[in-house]
Structures are given as C-alpha cells and as structure tokens.
Amino acid sequence: MLRLLFTRWLTVFTVFTAAALLGNAPPASAQAPAYAPTYLDPVDLGTLGGNETRAHAEKAGRIVGASQTSDGAIHAFKYEQGAMTDLGTLGGTTSWAFAINSAGSIVGSASVGGDLATHAFLWTQTDGMMDLGTLGGTYSRAAGINDDGQVAGWAQMPGDTAYHAFVWDATNGMQDLGTFGGESSFAYDIAAGMICGEAMLPDGSSHAFTRSTDGLLDLGTLGGTYSAAINCGDPAFSQRPVVGESSIAGDGATHAVSWDQRGVVDRGTLGGAESRALRTSIWGEIFGESQTAAGDTHPFQLWRGLVDFSQVLGDDSRIESVVPISDMRARAGTVVSGTAFGQADVHAYIASVPLLSEIDPSTARTITTGVFDVISQATAIHQFRCRRSESISPPIRSSSPIPGSDR
User: Fold this and answer.
1) How far apart are CA 68 and CA 184, in angstroms?
2) Scanning 89, 142, 180, 383, which has the fewest C-beta atoms within 10 Å of its C-beta?
3) Mean pLDDT of the chain
4) Domain limits at 40?
5) What is the Cα–Cα distance from 53 to 20, expressed in whole angstroms?
6) What is the DSSP pairing of strand 91-100 with strand 106-112?
7) How many structural domains does the chain have?
8) Which stretches of the chain drop beneath a pLDDT of 70?
C-alpha cells in the first residue's frame, strides 16, 4: 500500500539518494516572465551541477526540492527568479527541502556531520540552515511550515523505537504531539491553526488526524485500519479540504481521500488498486498519484474526474509528481518532475496545463495544442497529454554556470 508510514519514507530517501536527482538553471535574463511558460514552453529548473532534480513545494514564486550536485550528493535547493541556490546541509552530505512559507522560510531534513543522523532543519535567508533537533532519538524530519513560522514533522523518541509527530516554533522549540494511544505518529503538513498527519491506536492501526487547540481529532477511514491526512489544504476555504489516503474495508487497497462535511470521501484511482492525494491547489484541484490498470504509478489531477498527468510534457514524458503553483495569476501553473524530451534523468519543469473546468469531460478534444483523452467515461478517468506531432518546444535552458550559494 502507498502508506506514508516512516519506513516507507526511509525507502524513498534511500532510493532518492542512490538514484541522485535533477539540468542547468537559466539565468534570470534568459527566462521567460515568471510562470509565463505553457506546457509547450516549459522552463527547466536545472540542477546543482549533477544529473537530476525533483521539486517538492512552491510558495510565492519560490520552488524548493532536492537536486544532485556535481559530486553526486543530494542537496536541498531553492529556485527563485531563474536561479537555483544550494541550501547546504547540517554538516553531512545530504539534504532535502519539503516545504516553504510565504516569507521564504524553508524546512526539510539534512544529515549531520559524519552522516550519523538526519535532522529536521529550518532555513532562512538571514540565518541559513538551523538544526531543529529531535525528541530524544536519532532522526527527525520537518515536513511543513505555515506563515506563522510553525513547523510540523516527526522525530524519533529516546531509544529510536518509535516516532512522534511534533510542532516546533521559535519560542517553545519542539513539542511532542502524542498519539491515539499507540506507539507512533507522524505530522505531514501544517496550515493556519491546523496540523494534519496520522497516529497509531493501541491496537496497532493508524488513523488520520487533524490537530488544533483541542488536540488530535481522529478523521476515520474508508472502513480499513489505516488512513493518513497528508495535506491540510486551507482551513479557511471549503474547496481546499484535507486530503490523504485510506485503506478500504478489508485493507485490500488504499485510496486517495478527502475529508469534508460529509466525512471521508473516496476519490478513486486511475484504474489500479492504490492511490493517494498529496496536495490541493488554490483553485480546488487535488493532485496525487495512483496506480493504473497496468500497475504503473502515475500522477493525477482531480477536478470533475481523475486526470492522468504522466505524459503532460509529451508522449515520451514520464512525469512522477505535480506541484501546483500558488500564484493566483498563474491560474493553471504547475511544477512537474519527471523525464521528458528524450532525457533519461529526472528534471523539474515549470509548465502550465488547462484547468479541468475549462474542458468538457464528456468528450475527447484538443485543448490549445494538448489533448484531453477520455480513458474511461464510466469512472470519469481522463488523461491530459501533449502530442509530439504538435512540435512541443524543448525547455528553456542555459549552459551558464548554475547560480548557487557556497554554504
């Protein structure tokens, strides 16, 4: 199952590090206007000197993620106005950036000296990278930050036998959020006044939670024993609900879900058994990933139905993830990570794609120069892709040295 239990995140980190990450960032003078490119005119974010880059979040025109350096290490980066900046590490060799707030404060995890441990960090333009510590164990990870500067994530407890969700702020430091009576908990996101994640019960099952001033609230499941709230959405707007994943009755599959006034809502799959919702856009779209009927994992957009985004940069592209852009002026702007344009390496690209609200979902039709295919009308599964025959433009790139910090 596509569960976000910490062991799965460790696997992701291991694969991510071994495979390396992400092209050459264009200088600001060579860039198209901010977020002006379309899916036929994408902007390649470049790399920190290595082969690959993956984007994990965007806010106020700044993109963060992880990229391979010239020596093969993986480092957290910030991309802004055409320049990619290396955020460094906590003394070790690796780091990853997972979230950013409107002020440009960035959080993630980084290895300490000797690579003996990986700790949550907070990076600011003024102070650089700061170690947020742990709850007494070896490992911690910061997964989200809100505009008040509060950070959420999870950390190992003394003895390294369990993980607990935490919230951190500059006044109180790292605070343990506890569990539902079980061993571990994980916080995956934080918004204004809300934290979301998953926590274990005494029987070993794990349920999604939100936390406000009243403590942890159990959000329930689709009938199975597992659920996780991965993204808090925007508590002030009902069209941006809490989203995540939940096992169905019998635990035979895990589906993308959202939570609203109706309770937990099954958002389906792209034809396979597994899916999970990861993010929401300011327009109310839900983005995530799902298995297809063939068993492959593809990114999706959900509006009036599930849309497969795996070929959004061309028939030969294989997109892994989609991060919506928060700028209202960008409308359908996204940052997609995957392989495209005949390259074997994963890069991150700024690209625009049409909103599903602009498309008649009842029929396959050409949208500008992209194609919207109905895969299954009965289950409202569609695919947006760009045809190579329509002369998709190569990404804007530059052979200039990569801008970055020497930290």
Assistant:
1) 32
2) 180
3) 80
4) 24-49+275-407
5) 8
6) antiparallel
7) 1
8) 1-41, 236, 238, 304, 327-332, 353-407
